[in-house]
Amino acid sequence: MLQELTIDNLAIIEHQTLTFSDNMTVLTGETGAGKSIIIDAVGLLAGSRGSQEYIRHGADKLSLQGQFTIPHDDDYLALLDRLGINHDDDVLIINRQINRNGRNTIRINGLLVNTTILKQVGANLVDIQGQNEHQQLLQPEKHLGMLDQFAGAKLLTLRRQYQEQYSQYIKLKRAIEKRQKNEQQWAQRLDMLRYQVKEIGEANLQTDEEAQLKKEREQLAHFQQINTALQTVTEALNGNDESPAVLDQLATVMDTLSGVASFGDDYAEMDRSLSDAYYSLQDLADNAGHQLDMLEFDGDRLNAIDARLTTIGSLEHKYGDDIPAVLKYYDKIKQELAGMEAAADSADDLSEELSAITKRLTSLAEQLTRSRQSAAHDLEDAVHQQLKSLYMGKAQFKVHFAPVHDFGPEGSDEVEFYIQTNPGEGMAPLVKIVSGGELSRVMLALKTIFAVNEGVTSIIFDEVDTGVSGRVAQAIADKIKGIAQHSQVLCITHLPQVAAVAQHHLLIKKAVHGQRTLTSVTRLGHEARVSELARMLSGEKITKLTREHASELLKMGQQN
């Protein structure tokens, strides 16, 4: 439902903020006052094509904002989710700005979108009767869904069952077609994966082994240097035939210093430091001696390490920057290989499964067709009764079926509404109706039936009563009032009969201020509505009798 509309610099409207209620709101006023501009504003917010011609003279841009309640429809909410549009508060705020430089900016709940997305979102918000681009009834691709909604819960349940099977059918068909189309590439990929899995698997890589191997290789490659360093340390500290031991010399010094340690804190600290150094060097001498005893050169081990590092380097060059990356790739291709080998083993199973699901789909599609054809007869009867009440009793309505040679997302049917408005003319698609008066009444007849199920939050009738009067005008008024019981209705009309049945009445006026034309909108109370209805009945000259007639018309229109 449209809750609020703000217009800035659209045609002759400088600024207007309008609030709307549920049920039926009628917009009246003199020809050219700007009634259709308001509808144009709603149309632009629903995705109509915008142009610089809409911008008010002297302004650089036009701005529109509309606040809508979101239809309670799971498919529509899923659409918003796919488009990334937040709808936590069940409200959509649409902003659209058109600049003279050609820039067109659109936001939905703050998200920047293009006109294609706006049309998708706006399709279920507004249905403008009088602007064919917004009329769902004049979009043949929508007719099948309307028929299904009319048919009711049983058929919709059957359609969901079909769609679940259809989804599986498409997945299986694509999988088989992809494999058949890419059989050679598939086989080459399978061979390559087997080779790579075998090569990496046989290497038996360990996550941290490369660093350990490099460390060990470094020690083996510098064996002589390490051996010399260790011998130098042990001989210096422990002494040899050619030189006294450093440790022995330190022991003598330590004994001498300990003799004066009790004579002052400084001497005691020096004694402790020397003692610590002595024992540390003693530990170092022991460790160096142990390392020297353990040190052994193994040329075969060095060759083995070099070979292993070469293998690791080759794998890293092919499959990743380091061992963890290679192992990650290994896990990935093992999974892919397992899937491909399973697919190779189950190719026949896939074909058998496709055959089985095809049979189930065929059965469900046939059930859908039968149910739709039955519902189509009921719909044809219902439309005929509606047309009869609109004084088009000789018109004929037909739901035209065309078979789909393959399965489609909705079944095996294509549906389009056909109409014959006058005897002898022959049935023709609904979109081919030429007469404005006939089209208006046919649209009203269909809207009366479909309004309950369509899920469109706002239906706008833009002068659909043009060219009718008398009893037809009253019949149209009654139909629109009936539709407003299920959907919000905004209606531009020149017929007092239609204006009288609305719950809310807006008067559109045009005036010149300071050599500029401005449009104003006023919400009318009871007495003002009587005056406006009197004007619509008799024109400029309003008599007492006209007002009485207008008052009676309003009273009758508000009954029931």
- Span between termini: 23 Å
Mean pLDDT: 85
Number of helices: 18
What kind of sheet is the major sheet?
6 strands, antiparallel
Form type: elongated
Residue stretches low in confidence (pLDDT < 50, at least 5 long) are: none
- The structure class reads alpha/beta
Question: What is the percent of helical residues?
Answer: 55-70%
Rg, rounded, reads 44 Å
| Share in β-strands | 15-25%
Number of strand elements: 15
Biggest sheet strand order reads: 2-1-4-5-6-7
Describe the structure.
This protein is α/β, with parallel strands linked by helices and 560 residues long. 56% of the residues lie in helices and 19% in strands. It has helices spanning 35-45, 74-83, 115-122, 143-151, 153-181, 183-203, 209-221, 223-238, 246-258, 265-294, 299-319, 323-345, 347-389, 436-454, 470-483, 496-500, 526-538, 544-557, and strands at residues 2-10, 13-19, 24-28, 61-69, 91-99, 104-108, 111-113, 126-129, 396-408, 411-420, 428-429, 458-462, 488-492, 504-513, 516-523. The strands form 3 sheets. A 6-stranded antiparallel beta sheet has the order 2-1-4-5-6-7. A 6-stranded mixed beta sheet has the order 8-12-13-3-14-15, sandwiched between helices. Strand 14 (504-513) and strand 15 form a beta hairpin. Helix 9 (246-258) packs antiparallel against helix 10 and helix 14 (436-454) runs parallel beside helix 15. The radius of gyration is 44 Å and the shape is elongated. The mean pLDDT is 85.
What is the element layout, followed by pairings?
Layout: E1 2-10, E2 13-19, E3 24-28, H1 35-45, E4 61-69, H2 74-83, E5 91-99, E6 104-108, E7 111-113, H3 115-122, E8 126-129, H4 143-151, H5 153-181, H6 183-203, H7 209-221, H8 223-238, H9 246-258, H10 265-294, H11 299-319, H12 323-345, H13 347-389, E9 396-408, E10 411-420, E11 428-429, H14 436-454, E12 458-462, H15 470-483, E13 488-492, H16 496-500, E14 504-513, E15 516-523, H17 526-538, H18 544-557
